[in-house]
Amino acid sequence: MEKKYKRTLVTTALPYANGPVHIGHLAGVYVPADIYTRYLRLRGEDVIMVGGSDEHGVPITIKAQKEGVTPQDIVDRYHKIIKESMEGLGISFDVYSRTTSDIHRQTATEFFRTLYEKGEFVEKTSLQFYDEEADQWLADRYIIGTCPHCGNENAYGDQCEACGTSLNATDLINPHSAITGNVPVRKETKHWYMPLDKWEPRLRQWILEEHKEWKPNVYGQCKSWLDGGLQPRAVTRDLNWGIPVPIEGAEGKVLYVWFDAPIGYISNTKELLPDTWEKYWKDPESRIIHFIGKDNIVFHCLIFPAMLMAEGSYQLPVNVPANEFLNLEGKKISTSKNWAVWLNEYLEQFPGKEDVLRYVLTANAPEAKDNDFTWADFQARNNNELVAILGNFVNRAMVLTHKYFDGVIPAAGELTEVDRQAMAEFKDVKETLGQNIETFHFREALKDAMNLARIGNKYLADTEPWKLAKTDMARVETIMNLALQIAANLAIAFEPFLPFSARKLRSMLGMGDVQWDKLGDTDILAAGAKIEKPVLLFEKIDDSVVEAQVERLKKIERENILNNFTPKAVGAECGYDDFAKLDIRVGTVTACEKVKKADKLLKLTIDDGMKGRTIVSGIAKYYEPAELVGKQVCFIANFPVKKLKGVESQGMVLSAQDADGRLVVIGPHGAVRPGVGVS
């Protein structure tokens, strides 16, 4: 039997304050956490949600260096943007703080000192990279070299972003400093390490035996790490930005960000509840739930719990429902390449559509595997679900009530079988909806909530009150009473998911605040009360709006291609005599078709000014046959005849390869007579 807790502490991964929040962060962490927290509040449970900005670490120092400002300037700017945009989307933190706060610095310092005084760290001296010209130690992100796995020449010292492989800086081929470009030297330096291997047996028991109910992706990743054997991990770094290591002999060193950041959950709780914070962290009657993305599983399931075990007085998390990644239009979201939908920009461009984004991100949440956000799906879900199902039912119910009863809620009379059937159906939804939220299946829970609106639409379609109004107003009173009760149920069911729309609906129905236990009831609204005139909960999104967003992404993609394009090196010298051997001419394409059983080949019929010729070209991936008909192209007339897929090719069409790999056929700027030579 599942244990019942007196209170719940919900934490959310701390976003790096070196840029705004994007939809990947929202779908992976913040929207699910907010749904869960709002649900518990509706149930009347004692729950708090804490979060904040992660303001230390190398990415922030790199950003500051590029912009010629201080790290504090960077984090001040982005903390404000992140905090305000979270509020704009309705992410209902009880506190959203930051790791540069005084209370966090104090809390992290005390935590380190406690573990140090208990002898929980191991001191090690090792060789690490140092840039002599810059006169500073090089963190992993300040070292660039060739990836030994895929050959990417711009891999970082901690990870290759081309192939995704985790690296150590010493793995890189030809490493150099990202600051000066020089080859770094290796010098001895002393650091303090957390001996994770010491806690491996307890972690193995706690996770693999006691938490088999965790999501398979979380459990599986933890098992993989444990089976591979845990190693000591440094908790300090040679940097000048961060929380100073509070012991003698550690001058010029700071706490490693992975050690510092999760302590932010504790300092945030302290900031919110200075007198009672320990109840949420140290009382066995409290549960802690971490909402994170899959890239943070190791920190929240192994490293931070090991830190808590070593300290000795804290409770361990009850669950860590990590999500996978959300892609954008089929490609991995990349902040460095601006391939993202940024929350602050969305809120500016789509005012009043906060719940549309929440809905789409929940419907596409990457709960078990990576998922994809597309603007076409965004439009379709808004128009076909929010507008056509949920908004349609609410509007019909309220419009009919105003039409027949001047906006006064009628009393229900004798129920018929169709009434009882509708009531039974939406009462059944309550249990599955709550169960899905409690087990972190938010996509399924959202479907349950939308099913209530479908039940309402079907009920109105089955009963047809607009027809009965001519002969049986008593029956219409019962129908409209029940329809409005369903609408009131929708205001409760959707509150965790669509808080802005739910609040608007509650206001129109005159409901006030409600509790989850009223879901499924048919007496939420009192007969005789008056409802407001309806306003649309949602509106259709036009094609032009979506097309503009898609075009913006295409522009970003083109810019990325051009920015990353490296011209091909000039080949070996070629004399005029060699060039003169090529008989390059201009021809006009008179016909074009795909070559059977060859995805890459097109068969071009070309007017060459003489008898004509056929050329087979590998450009089918880049051109439809009709695009080439009538086009003038350059071709090599004296290229050896070759048979390709049974078709004789009498030459070779010239093409250029664009930065994105696309082949573009080459031809004259203006029309010329077929057969003329190119010299």
Kindly describe this structure.
The structure is a single chain. Strand 24 and strand 25 (663-665) form a beta hairpin. The relative contact order is 0.09. The termini are far apart. The mean pLDDT is 93. A five-stranded antiparallel beta sheet has the order 19-18-17-20-23. A four-stranded parallel beta sheet has the order 3-2-1-13. The longest helix has 31 residues, at 375-405. The protein folds into four domains: 7-114 and 258-326, HUPs (Rossmann fold, 3-Layer(aba) Sandwich), CATH 3.40.50.620; 118-233, Methionyl-trna Synthetase, domain 2 (Beta Complex), CATH 2.170.220; 374-518, Isoleucyl-tRNA Synthetase, Domain 1 (Orthogonal Bundle), CATH 1.10.730; 576-665, Nucleic acid-binding proteins (OB fold (Dihydrolipoamide Acetyltransferase, E2P), Beta Barrel), CATH 2.40.50.140. It is an alpha+beta fold and 679 residues long.
